Known about the structure:
Blueprint (H helix, E strand, L loop, with lengths): L1 E2 L3 E2 L4 H14 L4 E5 L5 E2 L2 H15 L3 E5 L3 H9 L10
Parallel strand pairs: 1-3, 2-4, 3-5
Helix pairs in contact: 1-2
Amino acid sequence: xxxxxxxxxxxxxxxxxxxxxxxxxxxxxxxxxxxxxxxxxxxxxxxxxxxxxxxxxxxxxxxxxxxxxxxxxxxxxxxxxxxxxxxxx
Length: 89
């Protein structure tokens, strides 16, 4: 399982995505789960990171899901019409 940091804004987005992709390459199973339960401070860049990471996961043939998505981030995903792209684990 890969874990998001407590803060994920535009300032941390690139580094966070790189960390997730590096962790993805170390995953041996058919699925990858991102734990978002620690995420407290975020902006829409968090959704961009999750969507790009989803794309990377699917490109490697891995099922992607998220655990612990906060209601606020889920609401933001719904507002943008992308909540179905971020399935719960």
